[in-house]
């Protein structure tokens, strides 16, 4: 079993990865696999594998590029930035992997419904309350995205926020879903996935 004992530079992102991520479309993700230690561009279903660290999506490339004010970044610039980001995330990989297991079914159900990850996940810092993970999802062809925040074992309510361009600081829709301890993990994941997919279809 791998641990967080990796050194800086352990994850190599190339210009080819950046080009492939851009060409293959918004429903693809750039990931690092814990077992093979390989960086690959994969489908939304493949990205749900708990042993894959999600580094970026094509939308994430745009966000990084916007940080360059003095010049248009090259694929090499973006590859270097993502390699550095992924290298930093390795320190928190055990916590991220644990939450990946938590949201595996949820991500898989959403991928089956045509809803894909819109960016890399965000995890709550260890030692500060319940572990949590926040994913951003988008339905193909929709302008808005869903921000979905879950806690370990769904102990606290899952928070779903629908927002997008033109919404300003006010989300188009926001709700809490409290199902932890009521249904099985799989049933809870399916319920959340259906709610997110329906919300995106309604507000997309």
Please report the total strand number as a whole number: 9
Shape: globular
Parts with pLDDT < 50 across at least 5 consecutive residues: 1-8
Treating each run of at least 4 consecutive H or I residues as one helix, how many helices? Answer: 6
| Content-based structural category | alpha+beta
- Most strands sheet: 6 strands, antiparallel
- Beta strand %: 15-25%
Based on CA atoms alone, the radius of gyration comes out at: 17 Å
Mean pLDDT across all residues, rounded? Answer: 88
- Terminus-to-terminus distance: 41 Å
TL;DR?
The chain has 204 residues and is α+β, with helices and mostly antiparallel strands. The protein has helices at 15-24, 44-47, 58-65, 75-89, 93-112, 185-203, and strands spanning 28-33, 39-43, 52-57, 115-117, 122-123, 132-139, 145-151, 158-163, 173-177.
Task: List descriptors.
single chain; 6 helices; six-stranded antiparallel beta sheet; disordered N terminus; alpha+beta; 37% helix; three-stranded antiparallel beta sheet; 204 residues
Can you put this structure into words, describing what you see?
With 204 residues, the chain is α+β, with helices and mostly antiparallel strands. The chain has helices spanning 15-24, 44-47, 58-65, 75-89, 93-112, 185-203; strands at residues 28-33, 39-43, 52-57, 115-117, 122-123, 132-139, 145-151, 158-163, 173-177. Helix 1 (15-24) packs across helix 4 and helix 5 packs across helix 6 (185-203). The termini are far apart. 34% of the residues are buried. The model is unreliable at 1-8 (pLDDT under 50).
